[in-house]
Amino acid sequence: MEKLSHPQVTIEIIKKYGFVFQKKYGQNFLIDEHVIQKIIRSAEISEGDTVLEIGPGIGTMTQYLAESAGKVIAVEIDRKLIPILEDTLAEYENVTIINEDILKLDLEQLVKEENQGRPVKVVANLPYYITTPIIMSLFEHHVPLDSLTVMVQREVADRMQAGPGSKDYGALSLAVQYYAKPYIAANVPPNCFIPRPGVGSAVVRLVRYDESPVAVKDEKLMFRLIRASFNQRRKTLQNSIANAGNLNISKQQVLDALEKMHLSPNVRGESLSLAEFAMLSDILSEN
Ligand code: SAM
To answer: CA-CA distances (angstroms) from residue 4 to 20, 95, 124?
Structure first.
């Protein structure tokens, strides 16, 4: 079969199956071979690798992944795409297609079964409506993975790289930077997709640290504090943490911790670095 990255081939497949794009699933299919090759190169895939692809669509990138990797596990939520994938990927014996919601799958178990628990490489043109939950859940559930090479909205890529004081800085920046080193491998304009998204996109590569640059005693508490701080971004840290229903930490406890850290009582979460959130969490976990 001719490659689906040629727009004409994609259009033919869509017509042949009478496929209707589902906006609710964030379906924007790639139709640019150069972009796909750039993703594959950035992901540094070789024959020894098992790749987890989230949302294969009609299999456009999967065709290239199957040619470079030892094995590809492709998880697609839309059951209407399954017969199409069985057709477009028929000649590749190293692809397993799973019709599931990636957020509902037990990925640790899947990696155990499909790759004997060895780390996989995640490669995806992510559905934009759930980019953040997908990335956070891959990291927080400690799914064995080497790296993620993902297409996201340009704005999300900026958030991943942002530091304290920037308007883009938030819970996603901190989560990503705790687990991995992010860098932007390419900017991708809307005309590389069908249908065209309303925003610019970027390919981001996240290489997981063997050991996080910041040590913290209770990772879960730190991320609860981070979420609480950015849920109420305009509030002071003492208010946003004391208001969080799931924390049970008083204003006074936060004030005491801030004093120990030589920080202003009126400081906001958006000005704390990852190391400072770790320190705050360690002090509060002693109480
Ligand atoms: N990889 C294809 C490409 O590059 O042409 C399609 C990318 S499209 C941006 C996102 C894909 O993710 C769609 O095929 C969509 O149906 C699928 N998807 C959306 N939500 C999903 C979920 N929760 N779990 C698995 N796949 C999902």
So the answer is: 17, 16, 16
